[in-house]
Amino acid sequence: MVPEHERIYNLIVEVEQPGIENEATKAIEQRLNAFLAEHNCLPIQTVSDTIFPAAEYKSGGLERVYDYPTAVYPHIKAVRANQWGTYALRLTERKCADGTTLNPLKLVIDKMKTAIETSERVKKGGPPRATYELDLTLSPLELKLYDAENDYDNGRGGQCLSHVSLKLGPNKELYLTAIYRYQYFVQKALGNFKGLARLQSCIAREVGISTGPLVCHATLAILEEGDGKSGQKPWRQAALKTLVTECEAILAQSQLKAAACSGAS
After folding, report:
1. Angle subtended at Cα 220 by Cα 176 and Cα 83, rounded to the nearest 5 degrees
2. pLDDT (tens digit, 9 = 90+) per residue, 86-96?
3. What's the CA angle centered on 78, arms 77 and 81, to 5 degrees?
4. Which residues contact 83 (CB under 8 A, 6 or more apart)?
5. Which one has a higher pLDDT value, 205 or 123?
6. What average pLDDT does the structure give for the chain?
7. What is the pLDDT of residues 208-230, one digit of tens each?
């Protein structure tokens, strides 16, 4: 039986507080991870780490993140899913036509930090708000994760996240918008959100500002059924409905508990 995926064009998700973790979010993540493990899919953390290497940042700061191309990627390159690269690799290394190598993440952090420090010195009323694109294909200060030379003939698989846009809000909070050419919502979306939130948090912390909302725009969002390929165990829409119902129950229970605590105080 051929899986029947549900598709939505131009699905936009906004996360108002992307760095928040509580009992409910952890329980939902645990439930989804159990589903993914049951069907031989990658765990949420593994998906998240392809965008931002959180363990490296926690243990060694930005320098460990910048070492990703030589310290981490060579050890995971042999995995079939990583042979095109990873988003973390493209964020920390881009080879130019003249043979030089750039670090787009470092460039955008330095640019934003300099703009904020300069504006504070001269008191111009604030730094530019919309000049911090993370594009790994075009100019060095653009962080686009689509590489025309390598990705032009890709079908599915490989690079899905195409662009990360960074903006400063009215109070210098960092807004992040990510654009996906397509996004799998069962296997990848929560890991994508976590990785992007950690990338946003890292940049904000290094620049010395707070984080604002995170927006994810999937030009094609897919609520996929498992096809049983690549060692996965298949699943159908009925299993997804059960999963969603269980996650909604976790959230509802958390909200009732919060309301009870608020009423008691």
Report:
1. 80
2. 999 999 998 88
3. 75
4. 77
5. 205
6. 87
7. 999 999 999 999 999 999 988 88
Query: Which are the contacts of 28, defined by CB distance < 8 A and separation ≥ 6?
Result: 247, 250, 251
Please, are residues 43 and 33 in contact by the beta-carbon 8 Å criterion?
A: yes
**Sign of torsion over alpha carbons 210, 16, 199, 144:** negative
Task: Find the Cα–Cα–Cα–Cα dihedral 232, 237, 240, 244, rounded to 10°.
Answer: 170
Structure token digits, residue 38: 């049951």
> What average pLDDT does range 53-82 have in this prediction?
95
Residues 6+ apart with CB under 8 A from 40: 231, 232, 233
CB 174 within 8 A of CB 200: yes
Burial class (CB in 10 A: 0-12, 13-18, 19+), 125: exposed
Looking at the chain, how many residues does it have?
Answer: 265
